[in-house]
TrEMBL record, chain A:
Lineage of source species: Bacteria, Pseudomonadati, Bacteroidota, Flavobacteriia, Flavobacteriales
Stretches assigned to the FAD-binding PCMH-type domain: 1-219
Membrane-traversing stretches: none
Source species: Leeuwenhoekiella palythoae
Keywords: FAD, Flavoprotein
Protein name: Xanthine dehydrogenase YagS FAD-binding subunit
Entry-linked PANTHER family: OXIDOREDUCTASE (PTHR42659:SF1), XANTHINE DEHYDROGENASE SUBUNIT C-RELATED (PTHR42659)
From TrEMBL, chain B:
Keywords, ordered alphabetically: 2Fe-2S, Iron, Iron-sulfur, Metal-binding, Oxidoreductase
Domain 2Fe-2S ferredoxin-type: 4-80
InterPro entries associated with the record: 2Fe-2S-bd, 2Fe-2S-bd_dom_sf, 2Fe-2S_ferredoxin-like_sf, 2Fe-2S_ferredoxin-type, 2Fe2S_fd_BS, Aldehyde_Oxdr_Iron-Sulfur, Beta-grasp_dom_sf
The protein's name in its UniProt record: Xanthine dehydrogenase YagT iron-sulfur-binding subunit
Molecular function as annotated in GO: 2 iron, 2 sulfur cluster binding; metal ion binding; oxidoreductase activity, acting on the aldehyde or oxo group of donors
PROSITE patterns noted in UniProt: 2FE2S_FER_1, 2FE2S_FER_2
Amino acid sequence: MKPFQYTRLSTQDLASGTTLRDSTILAGGTNLIDLMKYGVEKPDRLADIGKLPYAQIEESDEGLLLGALVTNADTAYHSAVKKTYPLLHKAILSAASAQLRNRATNGGNLLQRTRCYYFYDTAMPCNKREPGSGCAAINGFNRIHAILGTSASCIATHPSDMCVALAALEAEVHVLRKGATLVIPFDQLHRLPGDHPEKDHNLEPGDLITHIQLPTEGFSDHFEYLKIRDRESYAFALISVAACLKVSEGKIEDIRVALGGVAHKPWKLKKVEKEMIGKVASTDNFQFFAERLIQGAQSFGTNDFKILLVKRAIVRALNSALNPS
Amino acid sequence: MNTNPVHFTLNGKPVKISIEPWTTLLDYLRYHKKLVGTKKGCDHGQCGACTVLVDGNSVNSCLCLLVSLDGKDITTIEGIGTADNLSVEQQIFIEEDAYQCGFCTPGQICSTIAMRNRGEINSEEELKDWMSGNLCRCAAYKNLTKAARRIYKES
């Protein structure tokens, strides 16, 4: 690991904002320290935010406010998350290992980087790691790679399970920017790769995620988090589906579906969801929805299987949400 | 010299040092303190051989910078039991023959203790998932699972 300067931030330090702008932020470090060991991340300065006051979960009339420094495990096992947001509970516990969930934080989960093999391998070209160097994945081994929203520069996926659930729940991200709180709808936090795959998200240098706001509606009656992976535990998703439904007299009142493992961000299309309102909650209509949601999907050889798999996974997840066992 | 101060408790004893910030908890334990019960397997958070307890939670010590653990309570296998005075968990591992070469055992035991501390296991699947962050290259999983189950239920 390359030597670096380390600062442990206090609340007073935040007022100036200077340290954050010039530093890489360290929270749980489960992804960052690993990337530093591989030489993918080479920060000169680390700003440790572990002592800042964002380690609480607060209930209010507006829903549940998750502190950015609460660990993934403490979030998943929180009584209000288990009761009102079982989708989030299930998604978090499907991810990583117990040890990683015990250390990784909510803010860090949002900002974790892709697990594209070529991103990690510093001997290979990668536009995300080294802009302009090329993409080894497009014509390489791309089993885990994206099929939606890709560009000629990058076909990496966002690796998080938690983010897929947060996208489906339409959470909001609270960001401290120049002393003021900015509220970002979850769908607008991450971005598609385009010509700048080195940018995973729309945050600016110096921004700090402080909280994640869950809305009051948790879809606890009709939800599913379906994760398909190469082994049953401790593996990233090939495909994941977070599905939420509200149904009245057999008809869809509300539907939320976010996909993981298929794009540079959790994939969710509000427009397609709106088209389903009032339709019968049936397998046929779920199949129609799946076709619309992944319209334009493009595969790259080793990940050809994902197009059929994701359609089937969407239908299966929606049927599970409709008829919870 | 580029060092930063950090205070913590290690196996019940307070420690106050200044250390290079790139030192991981794992490297501190093994190379500075010669506490070699905690093992270095992959050094990337994948194998679980380096699992220790921080505030009672299992973590991969290879992915924690020591300086980031200010104020924390760290417990390694050396703080859990000794050869002359085995802990309940170590005794159960012996009774269930839950290891072969023993390399992964300190991490496995820390994970079972953290699992019991958390108290959120409701099924065999959840128990296996909890323990899936600790690999055993000897594949002693059958007896490991038995030991983990007993530790969760009995101790």
